[in-house]
Records
---
Amino acid sequence: MKRKKLISVCLVCTCLLLLNGCTDDFLDFTPKDKITSANFPEDESDIKLLLNGLYAQLREKEVYIQGLFGFGILDGATPNAFNWGNTTIARAGNGSLTSGNSEMLTYRWQRPYGIVSRANNLLKEIEKVELAEDVKALYVGEAHFLRGLAYATLVESYGGVPLILEEISAEESRRLSRATAGETWNQVHADYDMAIARLKADAPETGRATLGAALGMKMRAYLYQGNYQEVLETVEKIDALGKYGLFESYEGLFNGKNENNKEVLFDIQYIEGENSQGTFIDQYCGTGTGSWTRGSRYVPTDDLVNAYEMADGSAVNPDNPYEGRDPRLGFTVVLPGTFILGHQFPNYIYPGGAFNHAGNRLKHLSTRKYRVQNEEELPTAGQSYLNNIVIRYADVLLSKAEAIIETGGKVDEAVALMNRIRTEREDVKITPLPNGLSREEARARLRNERRVEFALEGLYWMDIRRWKIGKDIYPVNVYDHNGDIIETKFPNGYLEHYDLLPIPDSERSLNENLEQNPGW
């Protein structure tokens, strides 16, 4: 639509006065200082705005902490960590969750659908703009990639959910029924396939989705479905890119100076700053400063510590249990005796107290991973600049190892992949696993390897559920520094229906067609 100049309006008014027959198309005047459906989108810059708004959803606090990904906070719903307070994540991890709870339960439903809505809008609006085919392909690929992420989170959490593939009205949304889990997974793969067909190995800007990111998330979707042959096929495509490998330092993976390194297939980008440019992850995960404004909301447990081996394969010394352990333990958990540097707590020796939140009774351990360390000035709460890694190459290696084990492949080949994780980094050298393990022994070692490699990264919650091992590992006691029990997770045992979250009551009250998951 052409924008009329002010002089044109004046001329039309003159015609009206003198001739009383001039056209009234001056009423079609479009304001230049506002975005309206009449003038948006007009060009690629407008489509870029829509895309930026779509990625911005990933940076929204309740998405990366409790919603789409969960990251380390989600470990609070597993034996890996203890969530102080009566939060929904704590309830999801101790057997007291109900369909009437909010927070994580509703965030994991609502936030993904927010991403779906924005992706659908972008896919509709891009058809109104003339773009070069290769440019359009990238935008379309990214929209499908992000929509795939959203539906993957929904089906992992709730099973089958309503599928919305175009913009609908609020009234229409209240009449939707759930698709099956299989249909929802099919949509996840359809979106990832659309992305894979359009994205390039390198993105035009850091932080945007790449072909490797789409292949990595498709691999994870197959892994979570137990489609192991497809996992192996997808790993081959990732390796064929020749782009990814293990970063030389495990500790350095979570240091802001090394972000976007060769191990990262996809992460969420942050910078220190206001207006949602940074994250609360350092506040929620980091060692506290004695103030409620910065103290661990979830804390590693002794049960997690016990999962780490001695680096040389020997037995743990009960009189000095932290010495000589797998180095990943010290890079993940702040242990008793740890010397912590930092402007707000210089020369602080850890046995004096973890400075976890005052309400948290677990005070002898704290979280190191994803915590800004060794800086003269900690970032302001809510402005941590550390990126959240969604998927990294270590996951590719361990997914391949798991797939080899579960498809009847050569166990020694899977062991070799696990040994890469244990020996290739400069700061992680652990006694290699031996050849000749039985398939059952290799499976047990693989599952523990995933637990410690990705500890406090939010993956163990889904691993427990997809492996169907909740009944085998619970109940789990959480102990304080005196050895007293703080909490027992699932004190009455783990029931099968816990493998899916309940559909939130708040959503079912809006749509009577949303059938509740069995057992809830």
---
Amino acid sequence: MEISRYNEEIQNYIIQIQNNRGQDSTTLIELCDKLEDYGRRNDDDALIGFACFSRGETYYLLNDMKNFYTQMIACLEPMEKLGEWGYVTMANNMLGIMSLNRGNAPFAMDYYLKAIGYCQKYKLPDLEWIVHMNVASLYYNIGEYKKSLDQLEIGYHYIISHPEMPDYYNNLITVYMGMSKNYLRLDKLDVASSYLHRIDCECTHQVDDINKLLISCLRARLYFVRKMDSQADRVIEEISEGLTLDMPIMDMFDDLYDYLQMLLVRGMRQDFLVAYKIVEKVTERTNIKNLKKNLLTLKVKYYKQVRDVEKYQEAAIEFFDVSELMERENRMMVINMIGMRSSLNNLVQLNKEVEQENELLQRKSETDPLTGLYNRSKLNEYGEEAFERAYHQKTPMAIEILDVDYFKQYNDNYGHQQGDKAIQLVADIMMQVRRKNKKGNIFCSRYGGDEFVIIYEGLSKDETMAAATQLKQMILAERLEHKYSFAADILTISQGICWGIPNDETRVWDYLHIADELLYNVKKVSRNSIKIAAIGDIKQQ
């Protein structure tokens, strides 16, 4: 990002954001808000994308996954427009990590494949190895330990050929730990131990506190498997002192889960309870059901082990409730879907070739030629994706259908060219509202003729209504003459909106159907009046 073209104040904001990464989160978010506000007032995608990415990165470190997801999704479009492929790659990579922690390996792999595709297309080897490391974690999670080792090898060869990189030793530790964990799962204990020995010999003088804790967790597991009880006890004591509520749980959960499981199997109940409560508190902040479900499996086993029937039943019911919420994810055949991508590199190469051949055609097929908005075909695709995101995140979405009042009369009396200009005006104002929106995401499309569809993601009911009202007021402010209208002497629109949080009983077309009904009801308002947008709740239908 080229910052020299900005004034001193904006340059200072950017530099402070870069310097505060991973440190003062409150200050960083405030700076991002100021930067984004300036960017939106000046239609500067670079500042908007950078602010959203930096905020998302901060929410990730704070274990606030809802806000992380919203910000990372929001940064993608402006960064793609500008060709900031490094940021696009990092955003997809982090979205992949979040998807994996949510228990959705296919979604995670899709994000990782996109990230690797960008790296190979735009020559970003300094980022590609990081994505391969995360693909290794994905394979480890689904029990494909040999494939995980293959991915770790890619990361290892990049790291050792770049000893000048920042955090060289911590990156090397991550590879060695990954190797050790996979060989431990493959029951090759000598090889697993050898990688821990390499950490001791090569890296301990540079290890940070997080890696120190994770190394100890792995070491304790190895001691346990080798029946080296006294050594294991000593390490477990060190781990108990190192667990804190400030841990970046998304990067540590798998290791801590394996460690807790080892304590339970070993019968170290007091140590288990102490560690479990800390991990549980940190995990709760993420609001990720899959992580909670994994922890509940350990809680159920613990109460069964201590023969506390009442607590066992409570934990089992809680586990069932969480599992039910995840039923849709559980129906996915994770390993089979991953297996279909038998060769990661071959698939990425195929995707690149298809992308090159179809890029222009794809843009044309998704865009309405008159307005530049997305067309109905893209709406169908995007609507399903938005619904899935809202369903999995338990966040609100809304669909608005709007049309121009008495457009036929306008077209017939002012002519088709003026009719086209009126349609373009509405489309332009829709995009202005979209750009001014600072929260969530707004998707605009032309449905056909004088009808348009807007999808609001992550906005409350009041925020959705405010955006819809803003759109209406901006169109009215144009005061485009329409003396043949029965609503007013200027061009007006009617709006129907369906809002709600998706559930198992709803589909995206339910939103469209209800929005269409509400639009029809608005149309029945008596003549000579400016129509107010009607908004309905999906849960009440």
---
Amino acid sequence: MSDRMSELVKTLNNYAYHYYVLDNPIVSDKEYDALYDELTALEKSLNITLADSPTLRVGGDILKGFKKYTHKKRLYSLDKCQTKEELKKWTEKILAAYGAVRFTVEYKFDGLSVNLFYKDGLLQTAATRGNGTVGEDVTAQIKTVKTVPLKIPFSGECEVQGEVIMRKSALAEYNEKNPQDPLKNERNAAAGAVRNLDPKVTAGRKLDVIVYGVGYISEENFNTEKSFKNGGIEPRIPGEKSALKSNIKDDAEARITSEKDTEKNIENDGAEQRKTIGSKGVKARKITGQDAEKNIENGGTESRIFTTQTGMIEFLKNNGFKTADYFKTAETSAALAAEITEIEARRESLDYLIDGAVIKVDDLNIRAELGYTEKFPRYAVAYKFEAEEAATVLRDVVWQVSRTGKLNPLAVLDPVELAGVTVSRATLSNFSEIKRKDIRINSRVFVRRSNDVIPEITGIAEHFADSVPVEPPLVCPSCGGELRADSVFIYCLNKTDCRGVIVSKLSHYASRGAMDIEGLSEKTIEAFYDGLNVRSIADLYRLDFDGLTALDGFRDKKARNIIDAIERSKNAGLADFIYALGIENVGKKAAKELAANFKSMEGMERASRAEIEGIRDFGEVTASCVYDFFRNEKNLKEIGEIFSLGVKLKNYESKPGRTGVFSGKNVVLTGTLERYKRSEAKEMIESLGGETSDAVTLKVNLVVAGADAGNKLEKAKKLGIEIISETEFQKMIENGKRG
């Protein structure tokens, strides 16, 4: 074996640890790549690959099937609670038994559970949870995940437990590069990647494994005094105090701790020695230092290496595992409730999915005494946030035509309560997904809703005798025109005259975040299409008061409001207009980048394909969509018509270092504003030094509430965020302009 090979593997793994686990790179990509290439060449020439070589992470050949793996120690699920009152009852029951207990609080990740087995410091097996006793061997897949160490300092045997996740940013990046076959959500993307027989698929998803616990660990030849050198932790964390105090457990069991016992405290992560008298025939016992070294079972010590969850996390960190960036402790039910509130508030701003929090007793000795039910440990509970997934029956699938001609299937459901709203419609993405998930009408399906995202069907719960397959349409459901299908999507070829395409295009143009023409809902635009022959964006600017009032349901006030809203839209920002045009694969962020780079519509029209592709985060597909749009004569003609009817754009101006009355404030606008278009209000906030957000999170410190403000206002109240009315908002703007 080459010494240089060992040196390269050690160096590259250290660089990867700093990059992926610590999020603190210490070398450039160029330096890393040079060493990686050297290692690859050396492995090829010697025909040797070390067990912890980073070259193993790219994914090997497709596997024939999953083998079974029997866990060293059973994996339990967690009992659940969904209210603070339920959590309080669970907490106080334990406090009543032990007098003083420290609890830990962690995120409950929404991913796929995985169990990692190490022996002699090397990763031997990675397996799914399965039934808790036997899981599927997914070692080849997990080895591609760069946050999983292939080698650790601890030389004994251990199984560590974690959650495989795909970050929201990784999902967005993947979908940007694969627009023809996008992934729908982070949880399914992670689970699908791990339970895929092709490890290269796993490698392409950029997954993480967040490790949170140690299930099984051997302690042969373990020396407490030298634990740090063996991947453990120092015998005692400085300043750490045991959660145990003298108390009476209940009528059935007494727990006695003497001062003498306390003075002989085991110097191993803060566990106190104590005598325990059990009414079930357990003899009184005293845990001595010698007992601890020999791990005597009747001492109740589950592990000599660490005796608290806090110590367990330190052990995991010392061995190079990626752990959660949120780990708190609390000693009262009120303190736990406060931590839960904080986690729930920051949930939306996280780069990964969580569906609750996990609360555990910190002391492993108390855990051992509390034990397990048939299904759950008694020392831990999962606090579940409001349900984001439920099961209901799919009754029908209707096909909606988008502005690009793409047919989008929409599920019609039996109404179900989900995340605080009644859901009766859900997206199905595309026909390819329908086939892959085996979606059938009259079957029971899982529906997921996260925050303000459109509900989606994530899978099948149960098929029934009357379940029937979903059939793709043979002609366009909107215009009866010819269809074209690729491997994923179905398209209407009649993009010029299809009612669905035109209505969708105009609805997008008028929507909030685009030209923000208040009152122009999809239903209203359908009425314009059918009754006023509106066929283009330019036709919206040709509408007049008399024409609107001739339509059923359009009285004078409604007609006047729409005409006024259309007129206000004639003064628009460049980024808003670019987004409103509905260029395929161009969202609000991409539109802002285009405006910032090319400054004007003329600049956009002159831009080369290479210049567009050079924009940060732009891929080849998006760049081609933009370039082709501005080379289409029909599109340029329509833009010219829009400008001839009075639309004037404010060319983009960079605004570095702006200060003003909103400096340091992150502002959310909610409800209906009477005096301002939403886009105008956002521009004013930014011009006076502030930032704007669409969601209420812990990063937001001001909410402007207009008429009919809903969930965002309620959440702001819950988080204690400053709330002002539109009148107060106007005064701030006026004062800012005077200043």
---
Amino acid sequence: MKIKVAFVAMLLILISITSIATATTFHGNAERSGYFDCTGVKIGKILWKANLTGLVDASPIYWNGYVYVSNWYGWKNWSPGLYCINATTGEIVWRNAEITGASTAALSNGLLFIGSLSGKLYCVNATTGIIVWNKTLENNPEWYGIASSPLVYNGKVYVTTFSNGCLHALDLNGNELWSYSTNAKSSYYSSPSAYNGKIFFAGGNKLYCLNEYGNVLWSFNASDKILNTPSVGYGNVYFATKERFYCVNVSNGLENWNTSLNGTISTAALAYGNAYIGSKDGIFYCFNATTGKEVWKFKANGKIDSSPAIAENMVYFATNTPNGTIYALNTSDGSLIWSYSLNPPKGFYYNVMSSPFIAGNKLFIGTDDGNVYCFTPILWSGKVNLSLASITINLTDGIKQIKGNTALAALIEASKIGKFDVSVVNSTWGLYVESIAGIKPKGFKGWMYAVNGIIPNIGVADYELKDGNVIEFFYGSWNTDPNDAEYIVTIYANVTNVLWDGEVKLKQGTFKISINNSEYEVNNLTALGALNAASVAAGFNYTVNDKWYESWNSLLVDSIFGIKNEGMAGWMYWVNYPKDPMPMTGANSYKIKDGDIVYWYYSTNMNDTPLTAPYVIKVKVKVENVVINSFNVSNAKRGKYAEAFVNLSVDEDDWYAIVVSGIDNGEAIAGISTAYLNANEATTIPVLIPIPQQIPNGDYKLYVGVYKLKTFPNELIKWYGYKICEVN
């Protein structure tokens, strides 16, 4: 966010399998490498979750701002189908109820290809959800139907069916070109992969390599049944069985190495020279891809069927256990970065078999609680109210005032709501944001900002926002797009002319204003008294001059919030706008009452109102109708009187009843006085309390109650207590 940017040439060295920023298939690409060439999600914060009711065990895929995934096997009010979800909001765009299952879709040229419980392979228009064609490939589908995830490769669609371990090849119009049966049941979820014109798939305990015409190039016999999808990288094919994890040469099918692994359907992810894979015993492994040597392992909270996804030195996976948990680990050492557990209610099971998919700096994953979750690097997102009034900010070397409608002011206000720290530095280039939520610059990375998706060419403290602007503070290298940022704070600006809007409680009485060598006493229950109370509540300053006091008995407010009167422009007030007419007397003389709303507004001309003025302060007035300033009572003897003195102020000229009463062990004494009281004047009212001869001695707790005489005794206005009257 520095105002001047030094353009620095950087060389980024990354060992990756292939670039798949627009990946739209299971495990990211044709090789099924699980590597996503995009920004990782460094915090486990949920942006949204979309409820699809039934189990969501397929992996979501992303395309053109939308997420596609199917569900299967639901509960009451289940809504089965293939869903299209808005990736930004989580809103469901469409649902095709005919297609359901655990197959992960593949997308090509705006068409979705997906297997189903019915044993059919479907082709669906990704924009509308309308079925283009379908093909029955499994005539006697078992519980899983076609759970294999189709692969679109070089203009053909490949998918495996489990009953006889058959690989089917179709053109994009649904015509079957050829098929190859292994005559051995495959794992339900095992899917084909491809590399360099070769197609890899499993049948029983055998891995096959075919060319694109269905001819077998080689096959490899494993020790037991192959459970997962083969992944290709580093010139090798990697796959797991119930007992082993294998690495064989992609060209000739010769074994390079194998190691012990309690395998599942978790497909290995390949990146940074390593192979990452989950196991049935809840251990997540990182193996050296060349030697098979264990690099590190991490103990999760249960079985791992989820296939890991890798992005920016982080690996993500989930556990298929009653308390399903999504994990993010450091790819270098296996240290935990974040995790999110579903924490189901007692008696429920929220497993996660789905595999994570990463795109547009978001992570998408399905769960058995019926939801698709979207995790995001957004640290905070929300609306802030901004005004044109200046605000004071803390710098690393002092304080400074900035305009209240700037991008920096929006961040400061957001930090108060979101309760995160912001560090601002004053440099020779101006103010810039050094850190947000403790995240500081590192290397070539730092904080920048964008308004409505565009990065401004002026400093954050100088950019003045308009109502409705969207501001993104994002962390990355100098050429990072906000959509690829590691961390984001998204702020929706509501820019208003209201500098302050709040309620004040006013008491009868006065306050003093000193102007030069003169001192003026002002009633609290005036328009100026309301401004004074608001200044105390909100912490802003105002100034007053007395140039019209001698001739008009009027004090003039000449600045609020540091905004001064200039020429014909200046501060005015209006009580109960627009219902009541504009006052025609000084603010120090205009009396207000409970429920009034006092507007102070900066008028640029005589035609301005609180609605059109550039600066407005809105003060809602709450007035205490009666204030009991003090209450004292004497002791007394039976057959005599106790004397009470009540000092009180009222907000309205009227007759009042003042009652002093109390009890001791069930016996009561009471006295009443009536008086006509003038508004805003403190008056002491004596009350005589007769003490009957027959009451017992004791300490009587006495309270004061004040009523309007015309509504006595039905409407108590104020009470106060208690004082002890000793009777003997």
